[in-house]
Write a structure and sequence with these properties.
With about 130 residues, this protein is an all-alpha fold. The protein has a single domain (about 5-130), classed as Alpha Horseshoe (Leucine-rich Repeat Variant), CATH 1.25.10.10. The protein is about 70% helix and about 0% strand. Helix 3 runs antiparallel to helix 4 (about 50-60), helix 4 runs parallel beside helix 6 and helix 5 (about 70-75) packs antiparallel against helix 6 (about 80-95). The longest helix is centred in the C-terminal third of the chain and has 20 residues, at about 110-130. The chain is globular and about 45 Å long. The termini are far apart.
């Protein structure tokens, strides 16, 4: 588990102008798992859409149920990349609470957002049938 100083360094790397550095930072924060959840959820509100996207991607990798509400809010992000990754993360978490937000995304302007929202809805409804 990372200490706070290490976590802050990786969070700063999420703001790098270099895509590879942002990807590496996301991997490190995701690898920290529950230790980075609070920071990652806060980053879903960052002014830079690339930071919000990478935060959602890390949360997708962690797949923690307690991030669902933050990810549901991220489905309303103005940037389609962020909406896509939030829907993908919700697909992995498979919480029924995400159904209204994902249903709304099936009408999104972006084709990829619509597709991942449908996939997420299918994953959630399949889970409900198996329970």
């Amino acid at each position: 588990m990372m200490n706070d100083s290490e976590r802050m360094q990786w969070i700063e790397e999420l703001r790098s102008s270099q895509k590879e550095k942002r990807a590496a930072a996301m991997q490190q924060l995701a690898g920290d798992g529950y230790g980075s959840i609070q920071s990652l959820c806060s980053l879903l509100h960052d002014t830079d859409w690339k930071v919000r996207y990478r935060a959602a991607e890390a949360l997708f990798m962690i797949q923690a149920q307690d991030t669902a509400l933050d990810l549901i809010r991220a489905t309303e992000d103005p940037k389609d990349h962020v909406r896509y990754m939030a829907a993908k993360a919700l697909s992995a978490i498979r919480t029924p609470a995400a159904i209204p937000a994902l249903s709304r995304l099936t009408s999104d302007e972006n084709e990829y957002v619509r597709k991942i929202a449908l996939s997420a809805l299918n994953a959630i409804t399949a889970k409900k049938k198996n329970v």
